[in-house]
Design brief:
HD_domain, 428 residues, mainly alpha, hydrolase activity, Hypothetical protein af1432, Arp2/3 complex 21 kDa subunit ARPC3, hydrolase, 4 strands, Putative metal-dependent phosphohydrolase, two-stranded antiparallel sheet, elongated, membrane
């Protein structure tokens, strides 16, 4: 079982206490509908929450927000809080490679966090809905477009902030970076799902519970479409890893090389505060940077001695071959450029085009330093591995010639942190 830090524990405890205080206020301020109505919305919530889609970040996305918003509009904050919280507690979600996830196999701290977050986000959103309507119209109305927009914005903001604080404490990263990662693209989906929630609420108010079921279908269809998108993305990632294994199968000396280069490249890109899209492109390029070696003869790749000029010129073609293989794939065109230029040098003496200084794409320069470092610190047919300290020395000496000077200090800092971490683990 994963151990959580004291900071994370304190945060979850604060969330739990805050949710209880808010729940106490809502219970005393708002009323509940009849039990059969509450049960109706709760069943819909459990179904919606069970159809969760797990994102790469580890967070889950469901269409439960639509039911939550519909319950706020139709039945009020207290009903919405109970319906949403019960839905999250009783959900049984199928997650790839993990089977069915439910309350009995979920760590207690996760369950407490999820329920507390649900009470806080749904409760405040529900209170806000009625407060804004009262202030603007001097009476509680069933529906106001302005109020709905405000509620969707606040609901999404609160949800992403609370989740980002948790990720910040767990990953020990900057809050703003985690928040931007979580909020990116969420508002559009929130408005889409929220719109369906409003339609469901209006259908219920106008025609009763039977009409709700007519609009529950499109809600499930929206979830299916998003799940299909995520599955396609997962297949793309799996294909990348399969290609990486194919490349490494040609040369046993480079086994694990691409994954290590990807890890170094991503760390450096994050240290430079590059965008998520650029980081993703760099990671993909790192995994596939040697794909062009498929077109190089095995005898040359595995030759233990020094290469002839002819053989070396053939090796130098692999970035171009790799780029040509990938450039016509729509979502890999930027990756292809990174791969093409990852053997360029800052002083212009690299290949294939002899680009110099800032003419070299930054992503390619990042990949270059990560690639060279890993090559230096692993065994090759023509030489043994260098120690990490010797490799650092080589990088320092080649700063401004082979490597972009902007990158060398940042990369060395990352490696030194890695060395320190290994020493502490060995001592422990």
């Amino acid at each position: 079982m994963l151990k959580i830090s004291k900071k994370v524990s304190m945060y979850i405890i604060c969330m739990f206490i805050s949710s209880l205080i808010l729940l106490f206020y809502i219970v005393n301020k708002y009323s509940l509908p009849n039990l059969d109505i509450l049960l109706f919305w709760t069943i819909l919530s459990v179904i919606a929450e069970s159809l969760i889609v797990v994102l790469p970040s580890g967070a889950g996305l469901s269409v439960g927000f639509a039911i939550s918003l519909a319950t706020i509009v139709a039945e009020g904050p207290l009903a919405a809080v109970l319906v949403t919280s019960i839905g999250i507690t009783l959900r049984i979600a199928k997650v790839k490679n993990r089977g069915f996830i439910h309350i009995f196999n979920t760590p207690i701290y996760k369950t407490i966090f999820n329920i507390s977050q649900s009470i806080i986000v749904t409760g405040i959103s529900g209170i806000l809905y009625f407060y804004v309507n009262e202030q603007l119209y001097k009476e509680i109305v069933d529906f106001s477009l302005f109020t709905i927009i405000v509620v969707i914005l606040v609901h999404t903001l609160l949800n992403t902030i609370l989740l980002s604080i948790l990720f910040t404490l767990i990953k020990e990263e900057k809050f703003i970076k985690n928040w931007l990662n979580n909020v990116k693209g969420v508002y559009l989906s929130a408005f889409a799902v929220g719109t369906l929630g409003v339609i469901i609420a209006l259908a219920y108010i106008s025609y009763g519970s039977g009409a709700v079921l007519l609009f529950f279908g499109p809600l499930l269809l929206a979830r299916y479409s998003f799940k299909l998108y995520m599955d396609t993305k997962h297949m793309y990632i799996e294909t990348i890893h399969a290609l990486t294994k194919t490349i490494e199968a040609k040369d046993s000396y480079t086994s694990g090389h691409a994954c290590r280069v990807a890890e170094y490249s991503v760390k450096l890109a994050k240290a430079l505060n590059l965008s998520d899209r650029k980081i993703e492109n760099i990671k993909t390029a790192a995994l596939l940077h040697d794909i062009g070696k498929i077109g190089i003869d095995d005898e040359i790749l595995k030759k233990p001695g020094k290469l002839t000029d002819v053989e070396y010129n053939m090796i130098k073609q692999h970035p171009v071959i790799g780029s040509d293989i990938l450039k016509d794939v729509d979502f890999l065109d930027e990756v292809a450029k990174i791969i093409k230029y990852h053997h360029e040098r800052y002083d212009g003496r690299g290949y294939p085009e002899g680009l110099k200084a800032d003419k070299i794409p930054l992503e390619a320069a990042i990949l270059s330093i990560a690639d060279v470092y890993d090559a230096m610190t692993t065994d090759r047919p023509y030489r043994g591995a260098l120690t990490k300290e010797k490799a650092i020395k080589e990088i320092k000496e080649n700063s401004g010639t082979q490597f972009h000077p902007k990158l060398t200090d940042a990369f060395i800092k990352i490696i030194r942190q890695e060395i320190s971490k290994e020493l502490l683990e060995n001592v422990g």
